[in-house]
Amino acid sequence: MKSSGRTPALKISEIFLSLQGESSRVGLPTVFVRLTGCPLRCVWCDTAYAFSGGQTMSLPEVLAEVATHDVARVCVTGGEPLAQPACLPLLGALCDAGHAVSLETSGALDIGQVDPRVARVVDVKAPGSGESNRNRWQNLALLTVNDEIKFVLKDRSDYEWARQLIEERQLAAVCPLLFSPVDGELAAATLADWLLADRLPVRFQLQLHKILWGKLRAR
Fold first, then answer.
1. Within 10 Å of residue 67's Cβ, how many Cβ atoms?
2. Is 1 helix (H, G, I), strand (E, B) or coil?
């Protein structure tokens, strides 16, 4: 579908209904709006198909497609959704339509203009991602208790890096913290053992959608 040009256009990789696989909202029926494009290239990325392609849709077209699923919760994700300027009006429009909206972002771009009604799930890239130099540290000062910080960890070095960062910046007092192992790189039980040994104030999480459906793109 093509945009009419009278409303912000978005490049959409896919829109689908599934269970939220991550964050404190895990397990809840959610409509995912995946935007095309990302300026980062994390070595463990599992959505590289969203780097390109997709279809151009107007804002009303996206809202109409979301509405067909009849679910209150919506997650805007990518790629990196904030790489598209029209992501900001999309987030606001989804909130205006009565949805409970979350945003999954790499943490490399400014989150300051995101509608305050949106729950921001912000990645902090550990060294094992190959993109830790892209972290926008100014974002941390913008977070509230309604947001979440996610660390995806490849190995013990990543874990120690994240643990030190949490302590130095007192991130546990900012918002909920999420730790995930890189699929196929760090054993889930190993990360769980480290967290228990250190009593870190974080939520351990696995990607529920992969446990249920493997590596299918959408469910």
1. 12
2. coil
User: What's the burial of 141, exposed, middle or buried (CB within 10 Å: 0-12/13-18/19+)?
Assistant: exposed
Can you tell me which residue has the tokens 């910046």?
A: 169
CA atoms within 13 A on the CB side of 193: 6
CA atoms of 183 and 153, how far apart (whole Å): 9
Q: Which residues lie below 8 Å from residue 126, measured CB to CB, with a gap of 6+?
A: 132, 151, 152, 153, 154, 158, 161, 162
Which of the residues in the chain have pLDDT under 70?
Answer: 1-7, 215-219
Say whether pTM exceeds 0.85: yes
Q: Which one, of 124, 121, 200, lies nearest residue 167 by Cα?
A: 200
Look at residue 138 and give its three-state secondary structure. Answer: helix
Residues 154, 139: Cα–Cα separation, whole Å: 23
pLDDT of amino acid 110: 98
Helix (H) / strand (E) element for 31: namely strand 29-35
User: Cα 7 from chain centroid?
Assistant: 25
Which pLDDT does position 76 carry in this prediction? 98
For residue 196, how many other CB atoms are within 10 A of its CB? 10
Sheet containing 119-123: give its strands across. 55-58, 9-19, 29-35, 73-77, 100-105, 119-123, 148-153, 177-181, 203-204
Tokens 């959608």 -> residue: 209
